[in-house]
Amino acid sequence: MHNFLAILLTLVITAITVGGALLLSALIGPKSKMTREKERPFECGNVPFEEPGKQFPIHFYVVAILFIVFDIEVIFLYPWISSFGTVGRYGFAGAMFFILILTFGLIYEWLRGGLEWH
Amino acid sequence: MAEQILFYLFAVIAIISALSAVTRKNPVVSAVWLVSCMCSLAVIYVLLEAYFLAAVQVIVYAGAVLMLFVFVIMLLNLRTGIIGQFRNLGLKFMGLVLTVIILRQFYTAFKGTSLILGNAGGLEPGFGEARAVGELLFTRYVYPLELISILLLVAIVGALVLAGKESS
């Protein structure tokens, strides 16, 4: 629990810094009116050529959902690595079977063209 | 004492974030409120000495799953205000009924248990860390673990089928 004191302290300092900066600039900063120029997204660079929130190609979603599946696989392997010495061969076999089943998923994904962009 | 203050602080943040997430008009803003809710829940997991779960909560939920939510919002082209069309009286009533049922379930589940904050007592050192989770997961609960791999396999197949990828 005490290891988390550093994280809590970081959180508190961040909140004070960000909140304080926002509060101070709102209190003592000069009030300025919104102009057309100020509402532009960038002060330098290209003007965006379309509205954000446009419909997305589904390819991105497939990549994202496949990423999450293998992300969760890695999350489950992390406790295995931490307890590698104590769970022994039984745990090793369990983890290998776990990986094997998901390797079938990877092969299926590959054969079905989930890794191709088009 | 400090634990209780932290618990109530982050419990309030979690509830406010959750309420904001369901009441915002812009779905992307809802997703950002959900990040705040998930992170507050991670703090509560830490207070319950479930350290591994707290880390997973931040990595998987606040990181990966929320990214997926934003993808879905963009995929379905949900614009600001479109959610409002689905907020009618009938759905609100249904939500109220479901909330009452869930609260009733919680009451039944927690009534008479010793789940009191700061009353962890008798936990061996290292409880809730990745090592302790692994020692249970890969010995006693290895069968549920394999079932999870099947579940993830179904998710892979489902994603590819839904995306309509032709088999080559």
Entry keywords:
heterodimer, A: 118 residues, mainly alpha, B: 168 residues, 3 domains, 71% helix, EC 7.1.1.- (chain A)
CATH architecture term of chain A? Up-down Bundle
Strand content of chain B: under 5%
What is the beta-strand fraction of chain A?
Answer: under 5%
Structural class of chain A: mainly alpha
The assembly state of the depicted protein chains is heterodimer
Overall, the morphology of chain B is globular
Q: Distance between the terminal alpha carbons of chain B, to the nearest Å? A: 62 Å
Topology, number of strands of chain B: 0
Residue-averaged pLDDT of chain B: 83
What is the CATH domain class of the largest domain in chain B?
Answer: Mainly Alpha
Number of helices of chain A: 3
Q: What letter string, H or E per element, gives the SSE order of chain A?
A: HHH
Look up the CATH topology of the largest domain in chain B: Four Helix Bundle (Hemerythrin (Met), subunit A)
Largest sheet of chain A: none
Mean pLDDT over the residues of chain A: 83
Q: Count of helices of chain B?
A: 6
Task: State the helical fraction of chain B.
Answer: over 70%
Radius of gyration of chain A: 25 Å
Largest sheet of chain B: none
CATH topology of chain A: Methane Monooxygenase Hydroxylase, Chain G, domain 1
Q: What is the approximate shape of chain A?
A: flat
Description:
Chain A: Belongs to the complex I subunit 3 family. Chain A: It comes from Candidatus Glassbacteria bacterium GWA2_58_10. Chain A: It holds the Pfam family Oxidored_q4. Chain A: It is a multi-pass membrane protein. Chain A: InterPro entries: NADH_UbQ/plastoQ_OxRdtase_su3 (IPR000440), NDAH_ubi_oxred_su3_sf (IPR038430). The complex is a heterodimer of chains A (118) and B (168). Chain A has a single domain, classed as Methane Monooxygenase Hydroxylase, Chain G, domain 1 (Up-down Bundle), CATH 1.20.58. Chain A has three helices and no strands. Chain A has helices at 5-28, 58-82, 84-112. The relative contact order of chain A is 0.05. Chain B is mainly α and 168 residues long. Chain B has three domains: 1-85, Four Helix Bundle (Hemerythrin (Met), subunit A) (Up-down Bundle), CATH 1.20.120; 88-119; 129-168. The interface between A and B is large, with 50 and 51 residues.
